[in-house]
User: Fold these one by one.
Assistant:
Number 1:
Amino acid sequence: MKVHSNFTGPKSKKRLIAFSCATALASFAFIAKPAFAEEAKADNASNLDTTAATTANVETTADLVETKVVEAPVTTENVASTENTTNVSEQASTSTASSETASETASTTTSESQAPAESVSGQTREAVTTDRAASEAASATADTNSETNVTGGQYYSDSLGNWYYKDASGKNLTGAQKIDGINVYFDENGIQVKGNFSKNKQYYDADSGALVTDCYINHLGGVYYVDKNGEPLKGAQTIQGKQVYFNDYNGLQVRDGFASNEHFYDKDGNLVTDSYVFSTKYNYNNTIYPFYVDKNGDKLKGEQIINGKSVYFDKYDGAQVRNSVADNGRFYDQDGNLVDLGKKHYVFIDNHWFYVDEDGKILKGEQVIDGVKVYFTPYYGYQIKGDFNSDGQFYDKDTGELVTNRYIQLTRYESNGSMAPTLETHWYYLGADGKVVTGPQVIDGVRVYFNYRGHQAKGDFGYDGYYYDKDTGALVKNSFVSLEQPSGTLIYYLDNEGNTIKGEQIINGKHLNFGKYGIQVKGNFAPNGLFYDAITGEPVTNRYVQINDLSNSYNTHENKDKWFYIGSDSKALKGEQVINGVTVFFDKDGVQAKGIFADDGFYYDKDSGARVNLGNNQFVQVNGNWYYLNNEGKIVKGEQVIDGNNFYFDKDGKQVKGNFAENGAYYDENSGVQVTNRYVNFNNNWYRIGAKGTPLKGAQVVDGHNVSFDQDGKQIKGDFASDGYYYSKNSGDRVDLGQNHYQNINNNWYYIGNDGKRLTGEQVIDGVEVYFDSTGKQVKGNFAENDSFYDKDSGARLKEQFVDLNGKTYYVDAKGKRLREGGVRTINGKEYTFTGGADPHLAREEFLYPYGYSSFYDLNNKEVKGPQFVKAKNGNRYYITASGHVPLGLHIINGELYMFDAPTNKYADGRVSANGLTKDYFPSLIPNGSHIYYFDKETATAIKNQYKEVNGNWYYFGPNWYALTGEQTIDGAHVYFHRDGKQAKGELVTVNDKLHYYDPNSGARTENTTLTIEGKTYHFDAEGNGKLLN
C-alpha cells in the first residue's frame, strides 16, 4: 500500500457540500447528480452556511490511490422541546428534504469522500485541514465527541473496504473523534462506522462517515429520526408539525400500525385521528378488520355511534365486529352496522342458524328452546347441526336437537397421522350425554365395539382383538370369517368366546391348521411341516403340489410355483425318490429338481423331472454351460486334472472359462485350461499370469520390462503405481520422468522428486507450500486432506482469506486451516457469521440453522430483518416476519394470502408453497374444519373473488380466499358448491330440504322450468324448488 501525505496538488474548482445531516438533507434533491456548492440553493427557512470541500485524484506508479482534501464542514443546531412530546424544529432540514418526505430518508451522501475503489493494495485518503476548518466546524454534538480537533493524520482502507484513520503519531484512532472539524467514529478495531449506529448510539453517514444530526434516516429498511446529538428519538414526537412515534426500544419509526401507546400511525408514520384504520398487520381468520381511532388517536371499544350508525368494536382489542355476533349479543352485518333481528325466533344468516332471545340478542352455548336441547357456538352464536360441539356432543343435522342413545353414520375427513386426511364413513353411537362411546359396549343386548375415535368395528377386528359382523357390528362367535387384503384373503375361525384359534384344529370333523397367527393355512405348508389343500384346507397326501397361498403367509415367494411331492404323512419328500417308477430328486426344502443338476450330481429333465443319463467321463454342454461327468455320470466340482490339463468347475459344476476361479487362477476362454506365464485381458484390464497360474502383483520385471500391477493384479497403465513411478499408457513400461520438476499428466499436475517418484502430501517447492493427494495429484482450488485450501492457479496454500468452493465461502486462518467453528467471528476487525455443523461456511442466502427457525443471511452475509420475502440459494422462498420468525401455514402479507409449509409436516421449514389447489386442515374431529384454497403457481398468492377450473371441476374462491360451499349467489346467479368446493353442474341437489337442479353448462339454478332428468320429469318454481311430476 502506498500512502501519500502532505498532498498539495491542484484543488478542484468543484466544491463539495459539508457533512452535517441538516446540510445533507438540504441537498438531498441533488443526490442524483454531483452536488456542487455553486448548484445548491438553500431554502430561506434554513439559511445554511456551507463551506466547500476539495477533491483530487492521484495516480501512482503502483496503485490508483484516492485522496480527499476536506475543508470546513458545517452543522446547524436546531432542536427544541415541547410539553409531553419533543417538537423538533423545522430548521433541521430545508424544503428540499423535509420530514414530509419520510420515505426519502437521508443517506447523507454529500460527497464521494470515502467510496473505496477495488484495489488489491487498498486505498489511502489524506486529510489536510485549515484554520477555518478548526474554527468553523460547528457541531451540536461536541459534548459526545472529542473536543480535540485531530489534524495532520491520514485515512486509509484495507482490502475489504474498511476505513481507518492513523494520526500523526501513526496510531489508529478509536471511538468518537473530530477529524478536520468532522465528527466521526471508529470501533474498537479502528474501523470507521459508516451507515450504521455506533456503540454510543449515534448514526454516521454511509458515505462520508460524518455524524448525522437533526434528520430522518433510512437504516436497514426502517426509518429513524436522529436528534442534534445524532441519537435516535424514541416515543411520541412532533416533527415539523406532525405527530409521529418511534419504537421505545430502538427508535424505529412506527408505520402502518399501532404503536405501544395504542395510537395508529399511517404508512408515512403520521398519527391518524377521527377515522377508520385498516392494516394488513392486523387480521383474524384471514380477514382484515378495521379499527376506529378518536380525535386523540385512541381506539374505540364496545358500542359506538359513528356517522349515525350503531357499530361495535371488540372490548379487548378494538377490532370492529363485522358479519358476526359481538360481545353484547347483537349481530352486525358485513359493513359493521347493527342489525335488528327481532325477538324470540330463529334467524338464518350466512348459511347458519341463530336464535334471538326476548332482548333481541343472539343466544350462545347450551340452550333449551321449546323443550329441545340445542347448542350455539360460544363465540359466534351459530347453531350446531349435524356436528359435534366443543364438548364432543352431537346435534341432529335437521332439528339441531342433542342426539342421545342412538346410532349415527357420518362421512368426514379423518386424519391418520399423515399430512392429508381422507374422507371416511363410519358408524358411531351417542350415549346418554350425547357423546360418542368408545371401547366394548353392550347396546340393546348386542356386544359391539368402538375404537378410540368412536368408529364402530364392522367386518373387521376391533382393537380388543375380537371380530365384529360387517352388517350388524355384533361380536361374531363359532364361525369362519375372512378379511380381504392386498396380498389375498385371510381366513380365521372364531370360537364360542369370539377368540381366534391357532395351530392344528378339528372343525366339523376336518383337520385344519391356523398357524401361529390364527390365519388358516391353505395351499401351503403349515409350521408343523404338513401341506394343506388350497380348497378344503385339509392335509394333502401322496401327490404333487404347488404352493397356491395368495396371502403368502407361511412361505417365501422363492418357492412359489415350484413342485413338491407330499408323502403319506402329509410332509414334503426330500432327496432321491422313485415315484410311479420314475427316479426324481427333491432338495433340502422339498423342491423338485427340474432342468438342473441336482445335489446328487445327476441331471433331471426340465419337464418331467425324471433323471437323465448323459453318459460318463466326458464334457457335456447344458443350457450353454460346460460340465464334466465322472465315471458315475455325476458332475465334478473344483480343481480337476483331465487328460493332463488343469481345469476348474464352480460350486454348481459349471466349467470356468475366460475368468478367474475361486482358487485365484485364470482359465483360458476357449479351452478352459489353466493359463501360465502370459498376459490375459479380462474386463478390459491386463493381467500377467505367473508360473503358478495366478496373477502377478506389485513391481515386476517381465521379459526385461519394468512393469507394475495393483493389489488385484491389474496392470498399471497411464498412471502412477504405488511405488511412485509412472507407467506408460500403451506399453505399461515404467517411464523415466526425470527429477525435481512439475509434470502434467491427463490435465493433473504432479511433482517428480529427486528419486524420479511422484511426491504426496504437504510439500514446500521453491518456497511455496503445496499439497499432493495420495495418488500424487496436486490439489488446486480445493481443500486437501489436511483441511487447507490451495489456490486454483498456483496451487499455493492460502492463508488469512476467504475462499469460494461449490457455491460456499470459507475462511482459512493464519496457518491455512479451514475455520471449523460456526457463529460470529471477527476477521480483520469485521464481524462475519458462519453456519454451524460439520461444514461451517459464511452464511449467505440461507438460514443459520436448518428448517428456517433462525436468522436468514443475505448474499453479503448480512442478517435479513423482516418483514420481507427472501430467496434461499436452494431456490425456495421464505418470509421473515418483523420479529424474525418464519411463519408456517396460512398468513396474510400485504393484503395477499400465502401458504407456508403446513404445520402438520414433520419437516416443515416455512418455504412458500404454491401447489395450486390446497387444503388447509385443522387438527379437529369436527367436520368442515378445513378450507380449500388455490395458490397461483407463479405469484404464490391465493386467488379470491373468482372462478377457477381445476382438473375439470369448477370452484369459486370467495372474498376470504377459500372455496365457497353450499348455495351461493354469484354475479346474480344462484349456484351450488359441494362440501369439497366442486361446483354442482347437471346435478340434482337437496338444499335445505328443497330439491334444486343446476345447469350442466353455467351451473346456474334452474327456475320456472319443467325438465326430464334421467327419465323423471320435474318442475322447478321461481325459487328453483323442484317437484317430481311422474
Number 2:
Amino acid sequence: MESCRTVVLIYFTKVLFGLCCLAFVSPTFAMQVSVTKTSNTTAAGQYIYHRVIVANDDSSTKTNVVLYANVSADSYFSGALPGISGGCTNACDSWETARWELGSIAPGTYKVIVIPFYTSGSLTSGSDVSLTTTLDYDGLASSIVNTATSTIANDPVVAMHLGANKQLASAGEQVNFEVTYGNIGTYGLASPSIEVIVPDGMSFVNASDGGSFSSGKITWHLNALNTASGGKLLFSLQNNPGSSNADIDEVSASFISNSTTLVESEESVVTYNDAGLTFTSTIINEYKQPGSYAYMRYVVANNSALTVNDVKVFQRNSATQYFSIPRPGISGGCTNSCDANEWARWELGDIAAGDSKVIVVPVYTSGASAGSPVESMLMVTEASGRYFLGAKPAFLTEAEEGMQVVLSPEKQVIGANEEVRYKISVGNTGTDAVTGLTLKMPVPENMTYVSSTDGGNVIDGNVVWTLNTMNPAIGSTRFVTFLSNADLNNGDVLETEAWLETTKRLQRSTDSLVVRNNVDLTFTATVIGDQRQYNHFAYFKYVIANEGALDISDVSLYINTASRTSYRQVSPVLTGGCTNDCDPGEWGRWEFGTLAPGESRIITVPVGMTSNVFGEPLESHALVTEGSGRYTLSLRPTVVNQREAGMQLSMSPDKQMLEPGEVVEYQLAYGNTGADAVTNGTLVMPIPAGMTYLSSSDNGDFSGDEVSWELGTVNPGVGNLRTVKLQVGSDLSEGSVVTLESMLLNPDRIQRSTDSVVIRDNLDLTLTTTMSKEMHQNGLYTYYHYTVANKGMLDIAGIQVWMKTGLRTNFSNALPRISSGCTNECDAYEWARWEIGTLSPGESSVITIPLYSSSPIVGEPLESHVAVRDASGKYWLGTRPTLIARDTTVMDVALTTTSSIVEPGETQEFTFSYGNTTSDTYENALLSLPLPMGYTLQQASGTYEIVNGTVYWPLGDIAPNKGGQLSVSLLVDSNIIPGEVLKLHASLDSGNNIHQSTGSSIATTVAGSSPFSLDVDADYSAPLVPYSVLDTTLTASVLSQTQLANVRMFALTSQYTTAANTGMTGGCTNSCDSGEWARWEMGNLDAGHQEAKSFTQTASGSLFGGKLLISNYMLFTDSSPNLTQAIMHVAPAGDLITVNAMEDTDGDGIPDWWEIRYMPYMNWLDSADASYDADNDGYSNYDEYANDKSPTDDTSTPDDFDGDLISDLLDEDDDNDGYPDTEDAYPFDASKHRLVKNDVNGDGKSDLLWRSYDKGWNFLWEMDGVNMSSATPINVVASNDWDMVGNGDYNADGKSDIFWRNNTSGQNFVYLMDGPSIINRYSLNYVTGGSWVVAGSGDFDGDGSGDVVWRNIVRGDTWIYLMEGGVIRDSLPSLWVTDLNYQIVATGDIDGDEDEDIVWRNSITGINYIWVIENGAIASRYTLNTANTDWQIVGAGDLDGDGTDDIILRNQVSGDNWVYFMEAGQIRESTMISTVADINWQIANIGDFDGDGKADFLWRHEANARNLIHLMDGTTVKSRGVLRNTDDTWKVAQ
C-alpha cells in the first residue's frame, strides 16, 4: 500500500513534503485521515480518483478543520467534490495549494472529499506522481500529512478496480467487495494471481471463485488471462463488532504476475453506527458488450425515523464512459453529456423517514479498451453533513458478444413479509456455444426462498439452474420467488445478484429492492411474449394504480427502451421526451396528473428492433414519480431477442378493468411460426392469488392451482386459442392489480406471456369485443365488433375508442368512420380514434371493423389493441382481441343474431353457421355454446345436450365444401340492467385435431327500450352457387313514440359478392363490393313508421361450397347518435350437411349426444370409456347407457337378475343355465329354457284354453302338474263362428295369447293375454272364410313372438304371418302344396335351432314331410319317412327335454302311441310310448303342464267327456291326474 499516514513536525505555512513512509514513530492523533486511490498506475493524460476521508474518532469536537492538498509536477486536479474553499486559480497544479475549510467535525463523524487527479500527457513510463494532503484544526500540535504516489505506465498490461457495496458500515456489519480486472495489454498472462489485504478492523467472511484466506490475505490463483479479457471477483468482510464511529478501514488489492505486482487498487470503509441514510448501486450486466448500454441503478433510502434534508447525488465517470439521459434528469453539473470531466448532480431534496429515491443511468462507453474495468465515482450528501455516502461501481468492457444475464424483479418497492418474484433473462449473443453453463442466484439476506421455475434448486444458499449448453443467438428466462422478512423497516434496501458461470463466472447482474410498507401507488409491467421473435413487436403493458384512500398528484411515467430497440404510437400518446421514435437515447414521458383513490392508468407500448443481436436480453427501464416525492417506482421488464421464429404466445383478457367479484375470460393464443414441429407441447396458466378458477375451454385440466392443456405436436403454421374463465375476489380493493402469466412448455418453457387487470368499483362503462371468426385467412376479412355501453345511471362524457391493429393487419372501412389517427389504412403503426362523445344511461355504440391482413406469418397470433377512455379519467378500459393467421381456414364460422339491441324479458334468436372451405374433411365436429349469465335457453335446433350451462351439438364429419346452420333461442333475463352487454361465444372443435378449433362471438346490448329496429330478410335459392342472387330486404322500423331524426342505414356486402348500386343515397363507387358501405339516407321517420330498402347481391363466379357469405348492416339516428343496430347476416354457400342424430364418433356403441351429456366422465372420442365405470357402481358406462341409467350416479343401476354386474339387457345368460338368453325362453329361470307352449299366465307351465260352443263361454284352466290351480272365465263370445285357432305368444311377453278366427266372415282377431285377463285386443285383416284355415302356430323367425301359418284348403297354397306386438309385422307367401292330401299336422322346433318348423303328412300315402323354417321362410324341405295310414301325427313336443321337439303319433286302430325322438331334423330314435286301446281316448293337447321341460299329454275321452293328464318323462308316465269333465260342446285350444 503506497499511501500511509506520516506525521511531520513542522510549522505549517504552505510547505509540503513529497516524501511518504518516513521512519518516524507516529503519535496517536484524535483525527484520522485516509487517502485511497483507484489505482497505483495510470497512463499519462488519465485520471486517478483519490478519496480522502477525514474522521473524528475522538470524544471532542474538532473546530476549524482545514484540509490542504498539493500535487506533484506535471499533474493537477479540478472538480473535486465537494469543491475547494480556495487556494487555486483554476485547476489546482503543483504551484498552488487547494484548501477545504471543513469547519467543526463532531466526535464520531467524518467528511469525504473525492479528488479527480489528472496527469500530464507528457509524462513517461516509470515517472511518479503524487497527491499530498495536510490536515490542521484548532489545538493540533502537528499537522497530519498523507502522500499518495502513483506510477505512470503508458503501456499498461492490466487494469484493476476495487470497490465496496457500501462505504459506510456499522459495527459488525458485512461489506461486500468487488475486484474488477482485465488484461488491456498486448500479451497474455500465464498464471496471474490477485491478493487482497484484509485490514485489522475487519474479518474475512467469504470469497468467490475459489479465493482462499490465510494470514490476513485473500488470494485467487487465476487461469491464463488473454488479452482483451477480464473478470470480476467477489469477497465479503465483516466490520469488527467493536468498531467505533469514525473508524476507517482501508482495503487494498494487488494484481500479481510472475511475482511482480502490476497494479494495485484501494478502497476504504468508515464505521458509522445507526446510519439512517443508505446508498445502493447496482448494474444490470457487469460485462458490457459492444453497442449496448450499461444500466446503473442507484437507490438512496432513509431508514431512520427522521427526514433527511437536501439530499444530493453526484456522479463522475471514468475517461471512457458518459451518459446523457439519466432518470430523473440531472439537476446540473454537465454541459452536454456527462463525462469524466464533470460531476453530474441530482438534487433529490428531502427524503422523509422510510422513503427512497431511485436514479437510473444508462451509461455508454467510447474508446474503452476491451477487458478494461470502467468505474464511476458516486457521492451522496445531505444538509446536516452527517452523511457522506459513496460507491465506486464498475463494469468490464468486452470485445465480443457473449453471455448476458439480466435480473429484474416484478416490483422494486416491497413491504415486509411480502413475496417478490424475480425474472432472470439469459442469452448467448456470441458466435460459439457455451457448455457446462449454470445460472445461480444467492438467496438474499433478509429474504426466504419460496419457489423457482424450470427445476431451480437451492444448493448451499444459492438457487441453481443447470442450463448445460446454450447455443448462439439463444436465450431463455427463469423465475424465482422470495419472501421478505417480517421485521424489515421502511427504507431498508435488499441487494440481490445473479450470475452465469461455467468453470468461471461469465456474467453477473445485480439489483436492489426498497422496503416500504403500505405503498398506495403501485406499478406493474407485463409483456405479451418473453421470447421476442424476428419481425414481431414486443408489447409491453404498464399499469399504474392508486390503492390508497387519498389522491396522488402529479403522477408521471418515464420509459427508456432497451438497446437496439425503439417504440412509437403508444397509447395513450406521449406527453413528451422523444424527438421522433423513442430510442435508448431518450426517455418517453407521460404526465397523468392526479390519480384519485382506486384510479389507474394503463399504457401499451409496442417495442420494435432497430438492429438485432440475437439471444440478447432486452431490458426496458420504466420509472414512476409523483408530486410528493414519496414514491419513486421502477421496473425493468425484459424480453429475449430470438433469431429463430418459433412458438408464440399471447394472453389477453376480455376486460382489463374489473369490479370485485366479476368474471373475466382470458384468451390464450398460441402459434408455431417456425420451420420445425414442436412436440409434446403443453400450455399452462397458473391461477394467481385473488382469482378463482371457473372453467376452461377444450377440456383444460385444472389441478394444483393451474390449468393446462396438452397440445401434443404443433406443426409449423399451426396455431389456436384456449380460453379460461376466472373470477376476481370480491374482497379485492379498488386499485388492486392482479398479474397473470401463461407458458408454453415442451417440457422446458419455450414462451411466456403476462398480463394484468385492475380492480375498480362501479364500472358503468363497458367495452365488449367480438369476432366473426378466430382463424384468419390471408385475403379474407374478419369482422370485429366493439360495443361500448353505459350500464350506469348517469351520462358518461368524452368517450373515445382507440384501436391499433397487430403487425401485418389493417383496416380502412370501419363504421362509424374513424375520427382521426390514420394516414391511409389503419395499421400496426397508427392508433385509430373514434370520438363517441356522451353515452346516456342504457345507451351503447357499436363499431364494425372489417380487418384485413397483409401476408401474415402463418401460425402467428394477430393481436389488436383496443382502449376506451372517458373525460373524467375514471375509465381506462382495454382488451387485445387476437386472431390466428392460417394459410387456409380450418372452417368458416359465424355467430349471428336478429338484433343487436334487446329488451329485458325478450327472446333473442341466434344462428351459428359453419362451412368447410378446405379440401379435407373436418372430422368429428363438436359445436359448443356456453350460456352466459343473463340468458336462458328456450329451444334449439338439431341434436343437442346441455352440460354445466353449455349447449353442445355433435355434428359428425363435415365434408369439404359443405356446411350447415343451427339455431338457438335465448330468453333475456327480465331483471337485467339496461346497458349490460351480453356476449355469446361459440366454438367448433375437431375431435381429430385439437389445433383446428375455431369460434365466433357476438354481443348484444340490453336496453330499456330501443327507438328502432332493423330486420334483415334474405331470399335466395339453396344451394348458393356461383352467380346466385340474394334478394335482401332491409326494414327499418321506428319503435319510439316520437319522430326519429336523420335515420341512416348502411350495408356492407360480403366477399365473393357484389351488390347493385341502385336506390342508394351513396357509399359505393360503382357496384358495391366488400370494401364499401352502401348508404341510405332516410331522413326523419315518424313514430311507428317502417321503411324497407332492397339490397340485391350477386355471387361471384369464384364462389365455392362451404364459404359463408357474411354481410353487415347498421342503422343510426341522430335522435340517439350513439345507439346502433348492428346486424351480421350469413348465407352459406354449397350443400348443407345432414347430421346423424345417433352419430357414434368413436364407434363404442354409445351415441355422441349421450357421452356429451355426461362429460367429463365420458369422452365422445374415446371408445375405451364404454368399458369404464364412471360412478364405480360395478356397471360399465355402456351398460348404463343401454339401460338408460346415469353413469355418474351409483344409485342408478340397471336390472341385474344374477348380480354379476352385467345388466339383464346385456347379460347373454342371465340365469346362468348355459343357454343364451336369445335361446332361453325363460332367461331368469335356470330350471328351464324352452318356451312353454300354451302358457297363458307365464308361470312356465302349460295351461288349457277351453271354449264352449253351446254358451260361448271361454275359460282358462291354469295348470300345476296334474292339478288345475284355477279355472277362470275369460269372456263370452256368443257366435259359434269364432274359433280359437292359435295359442301362440304374439307379443313375446312370455305368455300365450289367443288367435281368433271367424270362419264365416273371415275376420281375424288377437287377444293379448295376461292369465285370464285380456290386456289388449287387435283386429287383424280379413282372410276368406271356408277356403283359408289357420293350420298352426309357432315362432317361425325365432324372435320370441308366435307366428301363424295359413293353408288354402281349396288351392293348397300356404302363407305365414310373422307377428310382433300382437299385430302382423310381415305377411309372407310360402310354397303351394297342390296335393290336398298333404296336411299340416304339427309345428315344432324339430331341428333345435329355436325356429319352429312345419310337419306335413299325406293322409293317403303316409309320407311325413318336413319344412325347416329359418327367419320365416323355408330353408329346406324333405321327406322324413312313410308311416302306415293307421297312424296319425297328433302333435309335437319335447318329450325327452333335449331342446328339440319330438313328433308324437297315435295308431287309430291299435291304440299304440309312438314317438319320433328328433335331432337336427331327423329321427334319432323311433319308439313306443304306450298303448291306450280305447280309441275314444285321444291326445287333445301336448304341453309341459308341470314345468319340467318335458312334454306332457292331455287325454280326452270323446264319448264320456273325461279329461286326464299324463306327466311324462320321456316315454314313461311319471304321474297321472284326473281333471273335471267337459262335455262335447267344449273344445280345447291347441
